[in-house]
Automatic annotation (TrEMBL):
UniProt-annotated stretches for the region Disordered: 307-349
Domain of life: Bacteria
Transmembrane segments: 356-375
One GO cellular component, as annotated: cell envelope
Biased composition (Basic and acidic residues): 310-323, 333-347
Annotated ranges, domain CzcB-like C-terminal circularly permuted SH3-like: 236-297
Record's keyword terms, sorted: Membrane, Signal, Transmembrane, Transmembrane helix, Transport
Signal peptide extent: 1-24
Source organism: Roseibacillus ishigakijimensis
InterPro entries named among the record's database cross-references: Beta-barrel_RND_2 (IPR058792), CzcB_C (IPR058649), MFP_Cation_Efflux (IPR051909), RND_pump_MFP (IPR006143)
Protein name per the record: Efflux RND transporter periplasmic adaptor subunit
Top-level taxonomy: Bacteria, Pseudomonadati, Verrucomicrobiota, Verrucomicrobiia, Verrucomicrobiales
Any one Gene Ontology molecular-function term assigned to this protein's record: transmembrane transporter activity
Length: 380
């Protein structure tokens, strides 16, 4: 059986890899992009992380709109009999129940005393307009009060025409009402408006939302994230994790072995929605990315914690180079000579590093040729 010179080849490849400029460059890049913080700094910056994972990703388009009262939930109180208002028990801003007596009307019909008519609320809700006060004369069919049930409201989005074509009744949207805090509501498109706005190139999209506490008011600004497409198994992370301009997007990934260490990692971003960003490349499922405090990390420099060398020394139990790379025997010798001979001798030994690389390669090639000759003799 013919023996193959596996050992010399592996030795040669090991030597090349060990002294490879690429390996050194990668170690230097890691050192330059690693931020190590103290535990106190992590707390002060409010660092929070989230694991990148493949999940359902919703493509969205943005639109603005306002809240409106539902026309069917309005009612007007009037009287068919002219007369004079004797009393009013409620005013604008008060809530009433259906059938509640809200005032008295003295009729102009003859009588001693003249007949009195009760004013009854036609429905429950909030009195939004009141046009009467005691002693005021009123005519038949005159509007006295307006009552609106605001337990549900319309959120009307002004949707660009090109985006409206991608929606249909039943399409889902996420709504944010700044005046109501950070809460996000979910609603479905009920219908489109009866006509488009030719001046702004939009069409109204009407969403019905619940308002049980009555805190929402007509006219409040609404921000819509209209869902146009849903895809499965998309690697995505929260929007807040993405930093940098469009040509240099990056995130900070928590180091898997070093405490309070974060590595700046470039990423390619695909689609965005109101909550997440699709990651095309640069991350793997399971990577833990910084979501809160990511912006601050960009200005933290190397951090206030231990250096990369010190952190790796503590984690691995042996010494590393300043850039975090593993130390070789020559590095150990250099460090020893540096300690004995001082800075001048260290500079001298550093200047010999190319010679060491040449000697290592020459020795490996020589060993390879020597073993090859031995194998040929045995075969002969």
């Amino acid at each position: 059986m013919r023996l193959r010179p596996i050992f010399p080849c592996s030795l040669f490849l090991t030597a090349i890899t060990h002294f490879s400029p690429l390996s050194a460059a990668l170690d230097a890049e890691r050192a330059a992009n690693t931020v190590i913080l103290s535990e106190t700094a992590v707390r002060n910056l409010g660092i929070e992380t989230e694991i990148a994972m493949e999940a359902t990703f919703e493509s969205t388009v943005f639109a603005l709109g306002r809240l409106q009262e539902i026309p069917a939930n309005k009612a007007t109180l009037s009287t068919r009999i002219p007369g004079r208002i004797l009393s009013v028990d409620v005013f604008a801003g008060d809530s009433v129940e259906e059938g509640q007596v809200i005032g008295l009307l003295e009729s102009r019909q003859p009588g001693s005393p003249p007949p009195t008519i009760k004013l009854i609320a036609p429905r429950g809700g909030l009195i939004t307009q009141s046009h009467i006060q005691p002693g005021q004369p009123v005519e038949a069919s005159e509007e006295l009060l307006t009552i609106v049930d605001r337990s549900a409201m319309w959120a009307v989005a002004r949707i660009p025409e090109k985006d409206a074509a991608r929606l249909a009744p039943g399409s889902e949207a996420r709504l944010h009402i700044p005046a109501a805090g950070e809460q996000t509501l979910t609603a479905r498109l009920t219908r489109f408006g009866v006509q488009a706005d030719p001046e702004n190139g939009t069409v109204d999209g009407i969403f019905r939302i619940a308002n049980p506490a009555g805190l929402l008011r007509p006219g409040l600004r609404v921000e819509f994230s209209l869902i146009t497409q849903v895809r499965e198994n998309v690697l995505s992370i929260p929007r807040s994790a993405i930093q940098g301009p469009p040509e240099n997007r990056h995130v900070f990934v928590k180091d898997f072995e070093l405490a309070h260490a974060f590595l700046k990692a470039p990423v390619v971003v695909g689609q965005w929605n109101d909550q997440s960003a699709e990651i095309v490349s640069g991350l793997f499922p399971g990577d833990e990315v910084v979501t809160t405090g990511s912006y601050s990390l960009g200005f933290a420099g190397g951090g206030d914690g231990p250096s990369l060398k010190e952190a790796l020394d503590a984690a691995h139990g042996h010494e590393h180079n300043e850039d975090g790379s593993e130390m070789t025997e020559s590095d150990d010798e250099h460090d020893h000579e540096h300690e004995e001979g001082g800075d001048d001798h260290a500079a001298e030994t550093t200047s010999h590093s190319p010679l060491l690389l040449i000697w290592a390669l020459a020795g490996t090639v020589g060993t390879f040729l020597w073993v090859q000759s031995l194998l040929k003799r045995r075969q002969a």
